[in-house]
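Materials and Methods. Structural model of Vesicle transport protein. The 172-residue sequence of Vesicle transport protein from Cyclophora tenuis was retrieved and submitted for structure prediction as follows.
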Amino acid sequence: GGTFSNMSNIVRKGDRRIGLSLLGAGGVFTLLGVTLFFNKSLLRLGNLLFIAGVPMTIGPGRTAGYFFQPKKSRATGCLMLGILLVLAGHPLFGICLEIFGFLNLFGNMFPVAIALMKQVPVVGSIFKAGQNQKRRSKADSYENTRDRDSYARGNDEPYYDDSYGRQDDGYY
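The predicted structure was written out as tokens:
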């Protein structure tokens, strides 16, 4: 009696560890299926694990509440139709529809996910590595490098260009 009620409780409310394991395995099988020239069996297995993993991770009620919002109906429809096409044996079109639906459903979560990934010890250093280079504006481009370079070499007075474009070699 106790084990069965515990098991139904897990299915009804969800278990994050099991759900994340299912989602991870589904992602691995899907990527492997795409890498192996859209292998139908691997893509089907990846989709089934994804279908089982989402409600297990966040709970069935929250899953239904998220996927069946009226403003997300087109994205949910594309994702479901893509899954059905993969299960029916049309992996290329199915994966394309799934990607479109997935990006429309979860696209607004990518900045949040990246911010969270920056907090993870090993992965965070990879995400932060590209941020150290600052973008150069037009005002900071080649024209102003003489000013900064001469000032940096110890010339106390900054360089002011008052030539207004004339070529002045100093020979009259």
